[in-house]
Input
Amino acid sequence: MLSLEEYEALLLAAAYLRSPENARRLMHEAQRLYRILQIGAITLLPAALPIAGAQEAPAGPAARAGAQIAASGASGAAACASCHGARGEGMAAFPRLSGSGAGYLRRQLDAFADGSRENPIMQPIAQALSPEQRAQVAAYYASLPGPASATDRPAPAVADTGAWLATRGRWDDGLPACGQCHGPGGAGVGADFPPLAGLSAQYIAAQLRAWQAGTRPPGPLGFMDIVARKLSDADIEAVSAYYAGLAVAAEAGTPEGKP
Output
């Protein structure tokens, strides 16, 4: 297993994708480190990095205030639960919120509020909330359990595009595997890399296209827009369906997910 320092170096290397002259060298070095592991399974997640939603955080004052906003709305903003479900489980194009890191959720609300993340539904809602209220909502949803624990498909075939991109990437194009940041089974990592399992294929595809179009900020390492632009429409549909399917399998207790 990679050490925490090696894992951080790998993520930082990916951030340098913005420098074309260094991209191939950095990606080949990342590939070399990755192959040191047993490439038959994603084992990049060090124990020091918590899986998002793995533990339910205590509901402190901020989370309790956020629960009220989520259930009833505030300051003219609609109740979050009306679109995202009673416990943040998500509905169709409206994503799961429960189990994502508070910092990640807060940044998304702030981005909607300042217009750097474009969405005609979420922008006026986030703008109606104060910074403190946005932090409270984020704390509440972060305190809830995440999606059912899922496992990646074992030894996917190259032709299984979604599984291959999720667990192996496409190094010839400088594409790291999704799981290198979002964790095995799309469970999420820490406060910055949200769960992908539990999101609908429609939502995941829409976000990848938003990064392609530049209508969503590129994330804490500043490279999701670059990653997205390396994906074809077929790639987007495949990887979106893969992560949506993992959640369904986990909830059903089928072989691709843990009962």
